[in-house]
Amino acid sequence: MSNGESLRRSPLDEQHRALRARMVPFAGWSMPLQFAGILEEHRAVRNQVGLFDVSHMGRLYVSGTDATELLSRAGTYDARRLEPGQGHYSLLCQDDGGILDDFFVYRVAADRFLVVGNSVNADRDREQIRGLLKPQINATVEDRQESTVMLALQGPRAVETLAQLVGPEATQGLPRRRCTETQWQGETLFASRTGYTGEDGFELVTSVEPGRALWEKLVAAGVQPCGLGARDTLRLEAALALYGNDIDTTTNPWEAGLGWAITLDDGADFVGRAALEAARARVERHLVCLMALGPGIMRSGCVILQGGEQVGRVTSGGYSPTLAASIAMGYLPSSLAAEGTNVEVEVRGKRLPARVVPRPFYRRPAAPPGSQKPTPS
Amino acid sequence: MAVPPELRYSKEHEWVRVDGDIATTGITDYAQEQLGDLVYLDLPKVGTAVHQFEKLGEIESVKAVSDIFSPVSGEVTGCNEEAMKSPELVNQDPYGRGWLVRLTLSNASEVDKLLTAEQYEELVAQERAE
């Protein structure tokens, strides 16, 4: 991005500069790439706990007696299935089934939802959902990207850290993908048991001033601040798709392995439904996980070959700190997508042997028995 | 940021230490800091003839790959195998245990085309200001 173009700054910009973060342009925002270094931050999240500023993510609050109807029309996962306190991954599609964004939809209360989408698509998401409003639909779509801070606290020690600093209400009885609202410094704090790292953890939304105080308190308590660099290595190990790399408006979501975000069986008339039903019967390739068998780093855009013929391209690739090897994702024809299939990846003119491996690359160890006490909902 | 006064530097952020007709090269402290955590080095084989300011190898950090250029011409006599196994050595000690390639110098006068420590510090100050 040119210097002349002004970048949006996170409400935590001053905090990042005070910590001497390296800032980079990302989706129109100036965000931290790294604080201590990508490897150190990655390991902190895998072994301890790390804190990300994700205030660049889109945050739409959809409220009103018809909010459920509006969102069951907008997203591929039927919002009517969500009980208050539940969240689910969903897709925002266009009529032809192309993916406009992938997002998380949380039913915060009966008539109130929070929709968290990618920063690069935030404006498009808002306009797409607002475009479905009609005079007879009682719902409002409020963009709270400017007025709130969003943090992700991730890692095996996230639960105890949040319970200690914010209070046990924020974490108690909050299983995976559940959300709650609690109080922090006299303001509402949204907390969900979600993330983009493959670890246990929380995503947190609150107003700007208490958000800054929460960031500072967590950092002062020794939580490692983390940037976009570690966010990318962590999500790649967890084989989580990145919009713009692994999925876009040309993707068949079934090929991307995102069928779990689409509910076809309860008749919700969401945008793109007919096209997605057809796409389900037309799965010709699969988003696979590749591990390099030699030295070299596979990167996005690298050609995947078999028998000297191009069979696909890497959509996300890099170095896995956990596996100490290069890992990548890319689409391969169904006939080549089975685990154990050997391919080659062209890395800067050299052919690097690689193999299709199980998805994801990294799965967090199961929690020891008795360490989680889910309460009845 | 360290810039040892006894070394000479290229505009591409490599350093060279000349000892008789033996030249030892690596990347500067500034370069390693800018690249971030290094995870892979691709260095030339012993016996390879390299030319001043031409590609010597590749160096990859977690986030990106970069070419490294030879600050002088010569024939490769050794690569730092310890650093190839543990590229973090280049981050930790870029002028010492993190050296990259050793060469026999084929034209000693080429060293005069390189920057002094003082000139290199000016270059880095300019880049930082941009």
Question: What do you see in this structure?
Answer:
The complex is a heterodimer of chains A (377) and B (130). Chain A has 8 helices and 20 strands. Chain A is α+β, with helices and mostly antiparallel strands and 377 residues long. Chain A has 3 domains: 8-55 and 146-237, Gyrase A, domain 2 (2-Layer Sandwich); 59-143, Aminomethyltransferase beta-barrel domains (Alpha-Beta Plaits, 2-Layer Sandwich), CATH 3.30.70.1400; 284-357, Aminomethyltransferase beta-barrel domains (Elongation Factor Tu (Ef-tu), domain 3, Beta Barrel), CATH 2.40.30.110. The longest helix of chain A has 13 residues, at 208-220. Chain B has 130 residues and is of the alpha+beta class. Chain B has a single domain (14-120), classed as RNA polymerase II/Efflux pump adaptor protein, barrel-sandwich hybrid domain (OB fold (Dihydrolipoamide Acetyltransferase, E2P), Beta Barrel). Chain B contains 4 helices and 9 strands; from the N terminus they run βββαβββββααβα. Chain B has helices at residues 29-35, 81-85, 88-92, 117-129, and strands spanning 8-9, 14-19, 22-27, 38-42, 49-50, 55-61, 65-69, 74-79, 101-105. A 6-stranded antiparallel sheet of chain B has the order 1-2-3-9-8-5. A 3-stranded antiparallel sheet of chain B has the order 4-6-7. Chain B is globular. The mean pLDDT of chain B is 96. The chains are: A alpha+beta (377), B alpha+beta (130). The interface between A and B is medium-sized, with 18 and 12 residues.
Please give a handful of descriptors for the protein shown:
heterodimer, A: about 375 residues, alpha+beta, Gyrase A, domain 2, Alpha-Beta Plaits, Elongation Factor Tu (Ef-tu), domain 3, 3 domains, six-stranded mixed beta sheet, six-stranded antiparallel beta barrel, 8 helices, about 35% strand, disordered C terminus, B: about 130 residues, OB fold (Dihydrolipoamide Acetyltransferase, E2P), six-stranded antiparallel beta sheet, three-stranded antiparallel beta sheet
